[in-house]
Design brief:
Low-confidence stretches: none
Distance between the termini: 14 Å
Helix content: under 10%
Mean pLDDT: 94
Largest sheet: 8 strands, antiparallel, barrel
Order of helices and strands: EEEEEEEEEE
Structural class: mainly beta
Strand content: over 45%
Length: 132
């Protein structure tokens, strides 16, 4: 049985990142993140996120990440077995996120990761736009 708190369509509202010492880092998707994630009640999901700026400053690369697959959610941890992705290295693997619900939305936190050359703890804040 799928935990219904996660089902539905969610729009990305904000992102944040900190280093191992808790020092704030630039937002991983720029100042205007854009994205959607949908968790279906049949256990399928898709996610598309990107830097939502119209123009990215010279020398910066636009971040774009998408993947789709079957997911499980135990109320705390979300695991998606990826079967298609913008980054082929994710296909066949698991994307793991810690999940918490707060302020009427959902926070997804990937494991510590190297991003923009820095080890980061990231959080993505989502607001539901449609029920599952």
């Amino acid at each position: 049985m799928i935990d219904q708190r996660i089902t539905g369509t969610w729009r990305l509202k904000s992102t944040k990142a900190v280093d191992d010492n808790g020092k704030p880092l630039p937002p991983p998707l720029g100042p205007n993140p854009n994205g959607v994630v949908c968790f279906q009640s049949d256990g399928r999901m898709y996610s598309v996120i990107c830097d939502g700026r119209i123009e990215v400053p010279k020398g910066e690369e636009r971040v774009f990440v998408s993947y789709i697959g079957n997911y499980t959610f135990d109320g705390d941890t979300l695991v998606t077995r990826v079967d298609a992705a913008s980054d082929v290295s994710r296909v066949g693997g698991d994307q793991v996120r810690k999940v918490r619900f707060e302020n009427g939305g959902m926070v997804l936190a990937p494991p510590l990761r190297l991003f923009a050359g820095i080890m980061q703890h990231q959080e993505l804040f989502w607001m539901r736009v449609a029920e599952g």
